[in-house]
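A sample copied in:

***
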Amino acid sequence: MSDSDQTLRQLLEVEKEAASIVEDAQTKANAMIAEADREARLSYNDRYKDAVSALDKEREKALAKLDADYGDKLARYRKGLDAQALNVDAFNSIARESFLVAV
C-alpha cells in the first residue's frame, strides 16, 4: 500500500468521523429543540389557562354586580310605585273622556 493510498484512507476515516460527530450533534440539537418547544407549549398553556380563569372571575364579579344593581333599581322602582297614591276617580274620569273621544 502506498503512502498516497494510506493518506486517502486516513482522510476518509477522518471524514467519516466528522460526519458521525455532525450527525450526533444534529440529533442532540433536535432533541433540545423538541424539549424547548414542549416546555414553551406547556408554559403557554399554563399562562393561557390562568388568563382565562382570571377573566372568568372578573366576568362573574361583573355579572354579580349587574344583578345586584338590577335588583336595587327594581326594588327602588317598586317602592316608588307603592308610594304613589291611587286616584281611582281621576283614572276613571280620564278613561271615560278617552273612550268618549274615541267613539
Q: What stands out?
A: The mean pLDDT is 93. The chain has one domain: 3-102.
